[in-house]
Specification:
Layout: E1 3-9, H1 14-17, H2 31-46, E2 53-56, H3 60-72, E3 79-82, H4 99-106, H5 108-116, H6 153-172, E4 177-181, H7 183-194, H8 198-201, E5 212-216, E6 222-227
Parallel strand pairs: 1-4, 2-3, 2-4
Antiparallel strand pairs: 1-5, 5-6
Helix pairs in contact: 2-3, 4-5, 6-7
């Protein structure tokens, strides 16, 4: 038996367009991002995909991408799980800063380490910083001690994988699942499924708004994976 799993990085956000570190900042899709989401829904429908269960983060750029995809597929109202554990990697004190200006301030080599090393996180937020999610009602049901002040990709993997094992995996064999998330939470899953090394995973680029299909065997090991539509 082959089990399909469709992964989708949200469409371009307004801060993607502005070249800013976004992380957990809850920004909207750009006009291009909305178009990307529509195209993703159209290509999934044209290929005959049908879903009865969706997973996404609590951030609206992922949720709105999912909403647009499902509307294009005439699948409004399917069961949806939303979790902060599917949120983007937390970029700490860099959130909101322009990437080019940050490189000028701290040096390109330092910013490259923060962006691309596997285990070195960016500078953390202070807990009294207005950007800290402990002040956001969106996370009222999350233990504040679990909310990150900054994350490396390694931290993101460790935050995401328990949710994968405990919540998503038990449903995969009986449901048709789509997961709409973020570049780094999808990297976390791809790293785990494809057994990619710590060094190699940081170079993996995942395009916005292009469905990535994994065909899994009964043990939920990948048989093959491929993108649908533009790349």
């Amino acid at each position: 038996m082959m089990i399909p799993l469709v992964l989708l990085r949200h469409g371009e956000s307004v801060w993607n367009k502005e070249n800013r570190f976004t992380g957990w900042t809850d920004v909207e899709l750009s006009a291009k991002g909305i178009s990307e989401a529509k195209q993703a829904g159209q290509v999934l429908q044209s290929k005959g995909y049908v879903f009865d269960l969706a997973f996404t983060s609590v951030l609206k750029r992922a949720q709105h991408t999912l909403d647009i995809v499902l509307e294009e597929m005439d699948l409004n109202g399917i069961e949806t799980y939303k979790s902060w554990r599917l949120n983007e990697r937390h970029y700490g004190a860099l959130q909101g800063l322009n990437k080019a200006e940050t490189a000028q301030k701290f040096g390109e080599s330092q910013v490259a380490i923060w962006r691309r090393s596997y285990s070195v996180p960016p500078p953390p937020l202070a807990r009294d910083d207005e950007r800290f999610e402990g002040h956001d009602p969106l996370y009222h049901d999350v233990d504040p001690s679990e909310l990150p002040l900054s994350e490396s990709l390694k931290d993101t993997v460790e935050r995401f994988l328990p949710y994968w094992h405990n919540t998503i995996v038990p449903l995969l064999s009986t449901r048709q699942v789509i997961m709409v998330a973020h570049g780094n939470t999808l990297r976390a899953l791809i790293k785990y499924m494809d057994q990619i090394s710590d060094d190699d995973i940081v170079n993996l680029e995942i395009p916005t708004g292009v469905p990535l299909v994994y065909e899994l065997n009964e043990a939920l090991k990948p048989i093959k994976s491929y993108y649908l539509g533009r790349q």
